[in-house]
Structure formats: C-alpha cells, structure tokens
Amino acid sequence: KAGVTQTPRYLIKTRGQQVTLSCSPISGHRSVSWYQQTPGQGLQFLFEYFSETQRNKGNFPGRFSGRQFSNSRSEMNVSTLELGDSALYLCASSSHRGGGTEAFFGQGTRLTVV
Amino acid sequence: ILNVEQSPQSLHVQEGDSTNFTCSFPSSNFYALHWYRWETAKSPEALFVMTLNGDEKKKGRISATLNTKEGYSYLYIKGSQPEDSATYLCAFNDYKLSFGAGTTVTVRA
Predict the structure, then answer these.
(1) In degrees rounded to 5, what are phi and psi of residue A10?
(2) What is the pLDDT of residues A52-102, one digit of tens each?
(3) Which residues of B touch A102 (CB under 8 A)?
C-alpha cells in the first residue's frame, strides 16, 4: 500500500509569509503527527491529530497550527515565518493515537525561510 | 521536556564488526520505547516498539534490549554491513514520541 506522502518536498519562503504543508497518511491510519528537525536538533514534536481533533501539542508558538480532514489528510500551517523556522518538517501516521504503535514517516518537506 | 539521551553521538565501525549503543530515558511512567533507522535521503523507518521490561527484539542482524526500571535500551548490530550506515533514533512514548538526537553509524568497507 502507498506510504505517507508529504507535499511539497521543498519550499522557499520569505520572512513574514505563511506556509501550508500537506501530509497524506497511509490508508486506514487516523493518527497524524508532525515533527520539526532543525540542524543539530533531534526531531521535535509539534502536534498530533486523530479523527480530525488535535490530541496533543508540543512546545511551539501559536504560529504553528494544523488541522486534519475527514479523510485523515493533515495540513500544517506556519504564519509569520521567521528565519528559525527553516527546517525539515516530517509527518508520521499511525494506526492508533498516542504513539503506542509504530509510526510511518513521510520523506518530509524542507522549508527554507530567507 | 523529557530527556531522552543517546550515546555515542556517532561511531565508525569496520565492516563485519559488531557494535552497540545506548538510549536512556525517564524510568517513571513508562509506556513504550521506539527505535527508528534513518538513512540519508530517506524517511525514518521503524525498527522496534518495545513495551515490557526485559523485552528483547530482533530484526535480522539488529537487536534491542529494554530495561525500564533503570531507564535504558541498547541497540546491537551484529556483523555490520555498509547498508547499516544510518542514524538510529530512539523515542520515548509519553503519549507522544520524544526523540533522542540519534546515534550516527558509519560502516567502513
């Protein structure tokens, strides 16, 4: 079956702009989590969506938001971009919520803020 | 913020040699410990999800052990091959995954 698909793969944005990233999970998976990786940092948890509801949120400012649709596809939005938002953004889907089962990751979206 | 630590940060191994590295995590409120392999230009791939103290899991030449009481897990690679070169991540599950910074393994032919 198809894996986790993230679009776009690469993005270049200007400070102050906003950006929307998309994640299509594995068919049948209802949990989608988002992570940020910046140089020298491990994967930092942003939030998890399950059945269209945000179930958990990491320690990120309110400029980072997300949503999940009825088909489990998820989008992540970052408003008022800052240089420090340049990172690899990964999404992961799971069959169950809360990290109890293995996560399947997409290839990520590389965001560069200039 | 949970403290999940991995050591060493990186290691170089000769092809055919065996190696191991560590993940340490909080020993209280344990739910599960995940291991992932992340090869360059690919997505992180799940290796193991470990839930019970004393758990031992094996996948080919890679195996892992878990000690929840003292808060550590070891990952072992037996007879390393160049294709084992990757960053190995552990993640502590406290109802979300908190990742360590990873151990980057380079296998020299």
Answers:
(1) -135, 145
(2) 999 999 999 999 999 999 999 999 999 999 999 999 999 999 998 877 789
(3) 34, 46, 49
Closest among B2, B8, B1, B3 to B74, alpha carbons compared: B8
Query: Between A99, A101, A106, which is nearest B43 by CB?
Result: A106
Identify any residues that bridge with B97 across adjacent strands, giving them in sequence order: B93
Mutate to test the interface with B, among A23, A105, A107, A109 (most CBs of B within 10 A): A105
Q: Check CB contact of B37 with chain A, cutoff 8 Å.
A: no
Cα–Cα distance, A19 to B35 (Å, whole number): 31
Contact B91, B31 (CB under 8 A): no
A42 has a chain B CB within 8 A of its CB: yes
| Structure confidence by residue, pLDDT tens digits, B76-95 | 999 999 999 999 999 999 88
Separation of alpha carbons B102 and A32, rounded Å = 22
The answer to whether the Cβ–Cβ distance between A99 and B42 falls below 8 Å is no
Alpha-carbon distances of B44 from A70, B10, B22, rounded to whole Å: 26, 17, 18
B34 has a pLDDT exceeding 80? yes
- Gap between the Cα atoms of B39 and B36, Å rounded: 10
3-state secondary structure B26-41: CCCCCCEEEEEEECCC
Only one residue has tokens 């340490």, namely: B24
